[in-house]
Every structure is written in structure tokens, then in C-alpha cells.
Amino acid sequence: MDAKTKRAMDQGGIADITTVGRKSGKPRRIEIYFHQFDGKYYLTGRPGRKRDWEANIKANPHFTLHLKRGLSADIPALGEPEPDPELRRSILLRALVENWDSDPVRAEAAVDKWVAESPFIRFRAAANSSV
Predict the structure, then answer these.
(1) Which among 51, 49, 44 has a CA at the least distance from the CA of 14?
(2) pLDDT tens across 4-58, in order?
(3) Are 52 and 28 a contacting pair, CB within 8 Å?
(4) Local confidence band at 130 (pLDDT 50, 70, 90 cut-offs)
(5) Distances from the Cα of 39 to the Cαs of 19, 42, 70, 122, in angstroms?
(6) I want to staple 79 with a disulfide (CB 3.0 to 4.6 A). Which of 36, 57, 64, 89 is the partner?
(7) What is the mean pLDDT of the chain?
(8) How far is CA 58 from the centre of its chain?
(9) Full DSSP string of 5-71
């Protein structure tokens, strides 16, 4: 992976992902927000209903991250749930404040709901990529 792609990955932002449908086996592409904190990457979403993309990654961890803002690149990736609720809390709080410009006091008041109800996948570039 070249330096431009690595920089784009490290900035996080909006991208698409293509997962494999856990029931259909067909590719499923959606737009999503991803974050990079301390050299690790995360897919997140708003609290609420369960997301098919999260269930698809739990069933088959291989997916493709499609960068599309400022740089176009398809990055093979592996995802997994983050089992540590304290780490999820820390990352979601940072995402709310640093990436989504939420007021820190309001973010702190809302973060527990985000931890309990938001989709959250930690991911890394697959072996044939060098992130």
C-alpha cells in the first residue's frame, strides 16, 4: 500500500464496505463511517437496530473497505467484534467528540447508550495489504 492510501486510512471518514451476506452469500455494499485511533481501525454506526453489515462481518470477517473521499482505493480487510466494553466506550467517546464534533459533556452523557446499542467492529488490512 502506498503512502497516500495509508494517510487516507489513518484519517478515517466515510467509505463503503462490501461484506458477504451471511444468509445469501452475495456481496453487500453500504456506506459507513470508519475511524482510526492509536493505529487501530474501527467501523461504527448510530445506536439502534442491529445492522446486517455487522452480522455479516461476524459470520465472515473478510470484507473490502472502499475509500472514496479524495482517494479511491479498495482495501481487503478482516474485522472482528471488540469484546471489551471499556475499549468500545473509549473509542466511541473519542469518535463522538473528535470526529463528529459532539459537545464533550453531551457525548459523555450519551456514550453508554452508544456502547450498548451501536454496531462496532475493529478491523485491520488483510495479509495481502500492508496497513
Answers:
(1) 44
(2) 888 889 989 999 999 999 999 999 999 999 999 999 999 998 998 889 999 999 9
(3) yes
(4) very low
(5) 23, 10, 21, 11
(6) 57
(7) 91
(8) 13
(9) HHHHHHH-EEEEEEEE-TTT--EEEEEEEEEEETTEEEEE--SSS--HHHHHHHH--EEEEEE-SSS
If you ran DSSP here, which 8-state letter would residue 118 be given? S
> Residue for cell digits 450498548?
116
Pick from 71, 21, 75: nearest CA to 43: 75
Helix axes 104-117, 85-94, angle to 10 degrees: 140
pLDDT at 48: 86
User: Is the Cα torsion angle 38, 51, 49, 80 positive or negative in sign?
Assistant: negative
**How many CB atoms neighbour CB 125 within 10 A?**
18
Using alpha carbons, select from 73, 76, 69 the residue that is nearest to residue 13. 69
Residue 51 is placed in which grid cell?
445492522
Summarize pLDDT for 99-115 with one digit per residue, the tens.
999 999 999 999 999 99
Q: How many Å from the N-terminal Cα to the C-terminal Cα in the chain? A: 7
